[in-house]
């Protein structure tokens, strides 16, 4: 690696923190198309899928499904902007692209947003794992976890104990990899487990529709007063978070045999993930209706009213719990990358410093563990990060880079699309934050929904 590259990570044209095929002796060959699709799809289909049925409960069936599709199109457009302007700027990372357009301040702001976004997501993943294995409480109702159902209330089935065991025996080995492509097999398994969840949810809903035990849920939102109208916008952060993957675009692309295939990889991944989201949201809302919880996994702990319902409940929760465990390391990869760039901007690349690699990893895991034990639900985690950092990473920064166009690469549509993206992102985020604050105000003053 050139000496100049080692001196500073804030060079706008290079990002030595990312492993390159010519410089990293561990890289035997480039990543494949399907390996990249699995890794990107796993980045997208994380915990957000569990909260999407609850967004349909807020928005109604028809508007909810339409919005899911529209956010998918918007996400693909934002990633396309990132890829095209990355080629024009000749950089190898998202932060370097923003740094090329807005200097060190812009680069640092993006890295902060990625750190906040990924921390929020990983805390949500741990919350889901805790919910699945140790149970959760919603509306003063206890929903037991798998470990409690199988072994009863013991010290090692408690939430804190289960999360410690998961961290040591599952997360620690997976987050020790220094290449994102090393996670391709676990990503493939993760995608498969998500499909298992979708198939079971759809099958149960169809069976109950056929025997008449459930009916079609609300097609439109229920607007009783002004508060219920503003509450609709609290779904925006959940929808945005469901598609966020921008932080892993460059790490995946940099390891490809043929980086020009990245656009096809993005399109394939988003089409697949949109299909999963639509199917899950539709059948999840059909199955549970207005009883759909913020985390739909918590709904799978009661009587489904069909043969082998208890076994299916356990299979659904276990398959998705393992899925989330396998999503965790691929999101953690870019979190560690950007946090290290913030704290040690002039140090040698992280992959060459084992002590720093271990220290940053340990500190992050400790913080995530503490957050998962104090954040009450995934809805709370997603509303905070989704309305702020996620919107910035996914839409505001790509639009701003395209509008800045420091290399003169843009065309006419590169002005229209970014302006629309920027307007939608800023306005929806502002309304979502205002709605959350208004809901907190009503709750503290004793108002009912």
Automatic annotation (TrEMBL):
**Where's the Amino acid transporter transmembrane domain?**
31-424
Query: Which GO molecular-function terms appear in the entry?
Result: L-amino acid transmembrane transporter activity
Transmembrane regions:
33-56, 62-83, 104-128, 156-175, 187-207, 227-245, 265-288, 318-335, 356-375, 381-404, 416-441
Please state what the protein is called.
Answer: Amino acid transporter transmembrane domain-containing protein
Q: Which controlled-vocabulary keywords does the entry list?
A: Amino-acid transport, Membrane, Transmembrane, Transmembrane helix, Transport
Major location, coarse class?
Answer: membrane
Q: Does the keyword Transmembrane apply?
A: yes
Compartment(s) where it occurs, according to its Swiss-Prot or TrEMBL record: Membrane
Q: Which Pfam families match?
A: Aa_trans
This protein's membrane topology, according to the annotation, is: Multi-pass membrane protein
């Amino acid at each position: 690696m050139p000496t100049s590259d080692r001196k500073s990570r804030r060079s706008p044209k290079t990002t030595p923190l990312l492993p390159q095929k010519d410089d990293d002796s561990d890289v035997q060959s480039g990543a494949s198309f399907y390996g990249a699709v699995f890794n990107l799809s796993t980045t997208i289909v994380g915990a957000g899928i569990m909260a999407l049925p609850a967004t349909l409960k807020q928005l109604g069936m028809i508007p909810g499904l339409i919005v899911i599709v529209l956010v998918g199109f918007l996400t693909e457009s934002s990633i396309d902007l990132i890829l095209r302007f990355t080629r024009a700027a000749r950089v190898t990372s998202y932060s370097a692209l923003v740094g090329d357009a807005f200097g060190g301040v812009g680069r640092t702001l993006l890295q902060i947003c990625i750190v906040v976004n990924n921390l929020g997501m990983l805390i949500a993943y741990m919350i889901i794992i805790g919910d699945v294995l140790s149970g959760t409480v919603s509306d003063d109702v206890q929903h037991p976890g798998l470990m409690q159902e199988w072994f009863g209330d013991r010290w090692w089935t408690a939430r804190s104990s289960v999360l410690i065991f998961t961290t040591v025996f599952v997360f620690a080995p997976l987050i020790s990899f220094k290449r994102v492509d090393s996670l391709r097999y676990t990503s493939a398994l993760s995608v498969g487990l998500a499909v298992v969840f979708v198939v079971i949810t759809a099958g149960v809903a169809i069976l109950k529709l056929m025997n008449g035990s459930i009916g079609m849920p609300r097609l439109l939102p229920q607007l009783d007063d002004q508060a219920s109208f503003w509450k609709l916008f609290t779904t925006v952060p959940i929808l945005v978070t469901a598609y966020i993957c921008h932080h892993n675009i460059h790490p995946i692309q940099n390891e490809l045999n043929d980086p020009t295939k990245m656009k096809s990889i993005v399109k394939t991944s988003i089409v697949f993930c949109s299909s999963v989201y639509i199917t899950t949201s539709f059948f999840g809302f059909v199955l549970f209706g207005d009883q759909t919880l913020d985390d739909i996994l918590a709904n799978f702990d009661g009587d489904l009213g069909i043969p082998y319902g208890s076994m299916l409940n356990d299979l659904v929760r276990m398959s998705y719990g393992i899925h989330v465990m396998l999503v965790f390391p691929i999101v953690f990869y870019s979190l560690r990358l950007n946090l290290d760039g913030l704290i040690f901007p002039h140090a040698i690349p992280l992959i060459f410093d084992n002590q720093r690699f271990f220290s940053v990893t340990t500190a992050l895991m400790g913080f995530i563990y503490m957050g998962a034990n104090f954040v009450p639900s995934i809805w709370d985690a997603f509303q905070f990060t989704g309305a702020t950092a996620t919107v910035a990473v996914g839409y505001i920064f790509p639009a701003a880079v395209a509008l800045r166009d420091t290399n003169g690469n843009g065309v006419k549509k590169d002005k229209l699309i970014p302006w629309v993206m920027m307007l939608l992102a800023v306005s929806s985020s502002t309304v979502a934050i205002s709605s959350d604050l208004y809901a907190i105000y009503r709750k503290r003053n004793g108002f009912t929904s």
